[in-house]
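TASK: fixed-backbone design
INPUT:
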């Protein structure tokens, strides 16, 4: 390895030790006979101080290289109470590992703000910004926490295909692709496949995978390719799935608070433990109507409604028992009132981040639901057959990873939380 330490691994008590750090030249200031270099790697920034007379003239000259040069610094750790880290590095050798051949398109220090589209056009540069690094540090915690929490609950991670023969949601537009001699589609959900895994006896499954929706979105809340964190659990109903969703979402939030405190501080976000509120769709309608948002029963919530519900009920809100007509065809109708479904959504900080339901596991009822939505049961023959061969009651949900990360990190545009976002206009980089 070129380096002996990452920046975050060096401490003041290591004074006198020789170290090698590798990264980018973040900033440089030359004051008289002293050069102050800020060297950055993905863990942080350290000050490298070169004083004329204490280091060679070759080292002094090397500090004149442009910002964002990729460098290797060999030197000695020295305590410095004036440095934010409590120490600095006195260089014995500075090597430019790859002299810049192109001008950096915007200021990585963020002292001069750049437009989001400009940053996305040069995402490899944008990832060097400490703020962008912080967002994806948080996203990494979200993914790791999701897997860890569910593994402890005896969930097994599986994979599902991204190429499917027909729509699984019945409503969203699909991206069609040529697949040898036929036309197939990019999956808008892994729904059918995680159900098949439960029917196959795996009982509790989880997955993280990309999904694709061909709607012509033009909002800060939607992507055409996004990442879902899904579960399905056998011998369970929607109330069981809700309990698991609360455990996972609350656990992820807690892990981010604990593991990413420095990243949250970098982003200026004060994250606090959210109180979880659960109420029915009917109660949500009543609360909105009582506060000036007149909504007819059977209408879905818009962004203003969701924001109002957050202010009334708290930052982590589960709404259950939606009208059956509003939900996917495979959502189980309530036994007492088939017009109501055993379904639910989770709102977090004013936006929907998760949706789920108990699924229809009875083949006759499932076929009726497919026909009622204007779809052809023949396109779901393999799916229906599985339910005729011993399907247990089951339920599940999906969390939108980018939406959850966006809210946890205090962002206002979902593209900030997608490393290489795909929307209706962007297919590069």
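OUTPUT:
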């Amino acid at each position: 390895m070129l380096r002996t330490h990452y920046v975050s691994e060096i401490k003041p008590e290591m004074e006198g030790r020789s170290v090698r750090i590798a990264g980018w030249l973040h900033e440089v200031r030359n004051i008289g006979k002293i050069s102050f270099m800020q060297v950055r790697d993905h863990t942080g920034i350290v000050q490298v101080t070169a004083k004329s007379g204490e280091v060679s003239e070759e080292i002094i000259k090397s500090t004149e290289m442009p910002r964002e040069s990729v460098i290797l610094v060999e030197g000695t750790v020295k305590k410095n109470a004036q440095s934010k880290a409590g120490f600095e590095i006195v260089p014995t050798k500075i090597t430019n590992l790859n002299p810049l051949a192109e001008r950096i398109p915007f200021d990585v220090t963020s002292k001069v703000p750049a437009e989001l589209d400009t940053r996305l056009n040069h995402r490899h540069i944008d990832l060097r910004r400490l703020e962008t690094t912080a967002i994806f540090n948080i996203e990494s915690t979200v993914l790791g926490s999701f897997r860890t929490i569910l593994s402890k609950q005896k969930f097994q991670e599986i994979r599902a295909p991204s190429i499917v023969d027909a729509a699984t949601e019945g409503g969203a537009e699909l991206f069609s692709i040529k697949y040898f001699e036929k036309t197939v589609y990019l999956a808008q959900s892994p729904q059918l496949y995680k159900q098949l895994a439960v029917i196959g006896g795996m009982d509790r499954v989880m997955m993280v995978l990309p999904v694709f929706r061909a709607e012509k979105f033009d909002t800060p809340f939607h992507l055409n390719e996004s990442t879902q964190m899904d579960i399905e659990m056998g011998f369970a109903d929607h109330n069981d799935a809700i309990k698991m969703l609360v455990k996972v979402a609350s656990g992820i939030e807690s892990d981010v608070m604990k593991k990413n405190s420095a990243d949250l501080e970098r982003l200026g976000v004060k994250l606090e433990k959210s109180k979880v509120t659960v109420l029915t769709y009917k109660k949500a309608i009543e609360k909105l109507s009582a506060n000036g948002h007149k909504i007819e029963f059977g209408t879905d919530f818009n962004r203003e409604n969701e924001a109002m519900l957050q202010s009334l009920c708290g930052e982590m809100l589960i709404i259950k028992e939606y009208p059956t007509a509003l939900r996917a065809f495979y959502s189980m109708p309530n036994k007492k009132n088939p017009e109501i479904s055993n379904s639910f959504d989770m709102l977090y900080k004013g936006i929907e981040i998760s949706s789920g339901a108990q699924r229809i596991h009875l083949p006759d009822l499932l076929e009726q639901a497919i026909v009622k939505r204007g779809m052809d049961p023949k396109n779901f023959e393999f799916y229906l057959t599985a339910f005729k061969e011993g399907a247990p009651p089951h339920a599940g949900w999906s969390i939108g990873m980018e939406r959850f990360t966006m809210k946890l990190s205090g962002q206002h545009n979902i593209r900030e939380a997608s490393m290489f976002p795909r929307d209706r206009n962007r297919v590069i980089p």
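COMMENT: The chain has two domains: 7-98, 125-417.
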